[in-house]
# Entry
Amino acid sequence: MASTQGAPILVASNRGPVSYALDDSGGLSARRGGGGLVSGLSAIGPEAGALWVCSALGDGDREAVRRGVAEPGVRMLDVDAQVHADAYNGIANSVLWFVHHMLYQTPLEPVFDAGFRRQWASYETYNHAFAQALAEEAAEGAAVLVQDYHLALVPRMLRELRPDLRIGHFSHTPWAPPDYFRLLPDDIAAQLLGGILGADRAAFLTRRWADAFTDCCHAVLGPGIPSGTRIGVHGLGADADFLRERSHRADVDERMAALREQIGEGRRAIVRVDRTELSKNIVRGMLAFRQLLDDEPEWRGRVVHVAFAYPSRQDLAVYRAYTAEVRRVAEEINSRYGTEDWTPVVLHVEDDFARSLAAYRLADVALVNPIRDGMNLVAKEVPVVSDDGCVLVLSREAGAYEELGDDALTVNPYDVSGTARALHRALTMPLDERAERTKRLAAAATALPPAQWFLDQLRALDQPS
Ligand code: G6P
# Structure
C-alpha cells in the first residue's frame, strides 16, 4: 500500500553507509563508511528526505537495531543471522560474485546441489525482506535505487508490491558473458535476470557489462528485453575535491614519511592497494614483480613493491587461503632477493585509508591488474592524488580500462611476463611523459564524480521509456 508520508528517494544495499561497534562496556559507536555511493547520496542532502535501507552486518549493528539506535536517513534491517549468512556468504559472495568475476576452477566447481538450493531460498527471503521494507518506506511514486548482486530479486518483488514506484537497479560488478552465466541452473539464471528486469532501468559501470547483461537476457530468456526495462551506463568516477583535501592532511604526511623510510632513500615504488580479494590478482602481480627482478637485475635494490591487501570476506575459507598465499609469496620474494637494507615487497594488511593515500602520493607506478573488476576506483584515485605523476599499469579486464586505457600501460592480467615487461616500461618512462599521462588520466578519472553519477541515475529514471 502506498504511503504519502514516506521517503521520495530510497537507496537499498547490503552494506550501508554506517556500521556500529560494540565496546566492552556495551557502548555503541557509529562509524560512517566511504565509497562512491555514500558521497553520491550526500549530494541530495538529508533535507530531501532520502532513506538508505541496508543490512545489519555484525553484532554492533544488530544491537543498534535492537536498541532502536539509528542514524538519520538510514534504516538497518536485522534479517535472521542464518538467512543473512546463506544469502551473503553463500549466494552473493560464493556464487554470484564468482560467476560475474569468472572465478570458478571449473573442473571441481561450481556444484549446484541441495545445499545450494537451501541457500537460494535464504537469498529469496533476504531479498523479500528488502522489498517489504522499501515498500513500507517509499512515498507514492518514489525513486528507489537498488544496488548490486546481493539484491537482484528486489526490483521484481518491489514492483509487485508497489507498482507506483520508479525502480532502478545498479550493478557495481562486471556482468558475466552468457556462456559463463549459464553455469547457473536455468531457473536460477532466469530468476536473477527477471528480478533485475523488474526495474524500470538496469544500469552498469561500463558498456561492456551492460552488453553482457543484454546478451544473457537473450540467451536465457529469448530475444528482446521482455519488460521494456531500459539499460544504462554510468561510469562512477573519483571524487577529486575530497581526495585532494584528504590526502594533504597531517596524518597522511606522517604516513608518507614512515613509508619513505620503509622504501628507502632514492628507490622507486610500485604501489597496489586492494581488498584481499580473489579477483584483484595480487599473487600474479607479485610474480610479475619477481620476474622483473629476474629479467632486469638492474632493478634489484632500486625498487620496492608496496602492496596493501586489506582483509575481506574472511568468513570464507577460499578468501583466507588466498590471503595466506599473498603473504607466502611476499615472504618468498623477500627471502630470495632481500638484502640487509632492502626489503623488495612491503606488504601491509591492516586497513588504513590515510596510509593508502600516502602510498598514492608517492607511487612511481600503480599496479591495478584485476582478473575482472566492475570499475576499480584505485586506478582512478591514484592519478588524482599523485604528487609527481605515476604510471598506471592497468588490466584490460577492469571497467576503468574503457576510460583510462589510452594513457595507462595495459596488461592481460594472466600474462605475468607481459606484466613484468609493463612494469619495466613504467619504471623507465621519461618523467615528462609520465606527468603528461597522469594529467590526462586524472581528467578522465574525475569526469563523473560520485554526486553527478548519483544525480544522473535519478534523472534517467524520470525519462520516459
Ligand atoms: C564490491 C561490491 C560491493 C561490496 C564491496 C565490498 O565493491 O560491488 O557491493 O560492498 O565489494 O564487499 P563486502 O562483501 O565487504 O561488502
Observations:
- DSSP finds 18 helices and 15 strands in the chain.
- The mean pLDDT is 95.
- Residues 7-236+451-462 form a domain with the Rossmann fold fold (CATH 3.40.50.2000).
